[in-house]
Design brief:
By secondary structure, this protein is of the alpha/beta class. The chain has a single domain, classed as TIM Barrel. It has twelve helices and eight strands. The chain has an eight-stranded parallel barrel, surrounded by six helices. The longest helix has 22 residues. It starts with a helix and ends with a helix. The protein binds orotidine-5'-monophosphate (OMP).
């Protein structure tokens, strides 16, 4: 899925919502545990209920890997279900990979060729050769961690070099020499608030994947205020806040209601900032 197609979907749906499929076997409604593949049954119901309100899905691989082979199969089945039934949705494997070039090329093959997702989250720590193999796929995206949503983001990401440039700014600056706004996005946590203005100073036109609204308490209002561009330039993720809105038989309807609420807010923001 290319940049124009993502923007078209955002405008069409009045939404820049990404639903996080962080599906935890210990948190899904009990009645689903009788299903032959409970994780897939949960994901399928969540997808069918929330698809009108979002433009992307982001399964985090940890939730699937924790279940071994069965989890990986459920993830693969989920991606296939999205591909076959919702081809207008952007699919992000949140895997946070990155290794020496030779190994990264196998991660890229696993996620882009084998699983067929549109994008993968990548950690920048090992540098250019660890990121490049993911960029060698036409029509696929790297989403590089830049300024994360967690408290530990302050341990390294704000450290400055001799010129006073912070590490996250160096990541943003340097990585834009490796890729373009057509194949490279950055992760910036919703909890970083006004720091979005600093991010936009260095990366004015890149799409940002923004986790941290909902369960982590980030403000959608602030993200848009400091981070939105004339093309939107944002994909805002919420996982737990949507998919665990109810633990009962009505879990899918409750998820849809949460997604719709966020979509309604996003439509207002898109209109306020002149995107639609
Ligand atoms: O790369 C990510 O998606 C990510 C980066 C980051 O800085 N913070 C962050 O929360 N995430 C992921 O985004 C999702 C957030 O989930 P909720 O807090 O439940 O909405 C999880 O899958 C996290 O692993």
């Amino acid at each position: 899925m290319n940049r124009e197609q993502i923007i078209e979907q955002i405008k069409k749906k009045g939404s820049f919502l990404c639903v996080g499929l962080d599906t935890d076997i210990k948190k899904i409604p009990e009645h689903l545990l009788n299903e032959e593949d409970p994780i897939f049954a949960f994901n399928k119901a969540i997808i069918d209920a929330t698809a009108p309100y979002c433009v992307a899905y982001k399964p985090n691989t940890a939730f699937y890997e924790s279940l071994g082979v069965d989890g990986w199969k459920a993830l693969d089945r989920t991606v296939r279900y999205l591909r076959e039934n919702y081809s207008d949705q952007f699919i992000i494997a949140d895997a946070k990979r990155g290794d020496i070039g030779n190994t990264s090329s196998l991660y890229a093959r696993a996620f882009f060729e084998n699983m067929g997702v549109d994008a993968i989250t990548v950690a920048p720590y090992m540098g250019f050769d660890s990121v490049k193999p993911f960029m060698e796929y036409d029509g696929k995206w790297v989403i590089l961690l830049a300024l994360t949503s967690n408290p530990g983001s302050h341990d390294f990401q704000f450290r400055t070099d001799m010129t006073g440039t912070r590490l996250f700014e160096q990541v943003l600056e340097t990585a834009q020499k490796w890729g373009t706004p057509d194949n490279l996005m950055f992760v910036v946590g919703a909890t970083q608030g006004a720091m979005f203005a600093e991010v936009r100073r260095v990366a004015p036109s890149s799409f940002l994947l923004v986790p941290g609204v909902g369960a982590q308490g980030g403000s959608l209002e602030d993200v848009a205020k400091w981070g939105i561009t004339h093309e939107c330039g944002l994909l805002v993720n919420s996982s737990r806040g949507i998919i665990y809105a109810s633990k009962g038989e009505d879990f899918a309807e409750a998820a849809a209601a949460e997604a719709r609420k966020l979509r309604d807010h996003m439509t207002i923001l898109l209109s306020t900032y002149g995107v639609i």
